[in-house]
Structure prediction request, 392 residues.
Amino acid sequence: MTPSARVQSAIDLLDRVIDAAKAQGAPADRILADWFKANRFAGSKDRRAIRELVFAAIRACGPVPSSGRAAMLRLAEEDAALAGMFDGSGYGPAAREPSEPVAGGGIAPAWIEERLAASDIAGPEATALLERAPLDLRVNTLKAERGTLALPVEAVTTAAPSGLRVAPGAPVEQWDIWRDGLIEVQDTGSQLACLAVDAEPGETVIDLCAGGGGKTLALAAMMANRGRLIASDTDRQRLSRLAPRAERAGASIIESRLLDPGREAEALADLAGVADAILVDAPCSGTGTWRRNPEARWRLTPANLERLVAAQARLLDIATGLLRPGGRLVYVVCSLLDEEGAEQFDALLMRQRSLKARPISLPLGKARGQGIRLTPCRDGTDGFFIARATFA
Prediction:
């Protein structure tokens, strides 16, 4: 493919990404993967270049662009070489019209930028949300130790006790140590969120919103495969990924439990009052993960955010009823909005008077309300709010 043809392909893909974002459809990664699979004429260099163009254009636009072409023109305003490709040659994009619309810049749609600023995420803290994320690994201590594990590429340790960082794009899933379950891909901030649970061997621990089980696997390693670890979620597809991951990791204590949305308490009734610790990694806006999913900021609406805040509160109340006296509740969201973080946790403590906030000691993060906040700018991790309470 010519460089100009790559630009036109990126524009076409951006149209699909924009439409999907408006319709709450497939994420950009999946859209690109499907297109590459269907268009074998694009070689590895073509795919890499197109992918970089698509995500650079997404990051360059704050509000949702009117079209893929408008998004690429926004990027071209910062890149003279790219602007020169808008001449219709080499199967590339047509020449730019003088009155043609160009997508707006910024960090996100204006209403989200306002909410972030109100939560003290502005300036460099906001800009860092759209940088490229690092690739972090967690050494599975059920099978290996960080100090003795040999990787095929150069790696540095992170602040997490079992954390390693390698260059973005490293083919981790092609390595024998990944296939054999010695490592998992997991952001350092996510690893620290698990650390806050203080899970011990022999305990009963519940991962209430387990998803694909990344944090569940980390908890199993902390518990040294001794005790009871329940991974629950309402998403059948995501939860189904846990079993093969657990087998690869050698995590044998995990019990998966599929929940019905809105009827979670009924499915967990047998666990009422018995949990030593509960991790509530609640569904959220994902503002802390924009480095990995930059188009996610185009999917969020005020109504969606309101529904997420309500769901978080409901799940926290359910979790409280599962704790034994002295049990620990750890609340985690990969969001930097206070209404999902510090304010949500404060509201929980007001509703559930039997819960008392407890300090968390982590190697990264800064106090936010009665919890800790991690940010990409300051900590080099995804953005998280993490807080802990005990049940009296």
In short: The chain has 16 helices and 13 strands. The chain has a mean pLDDT of 95.
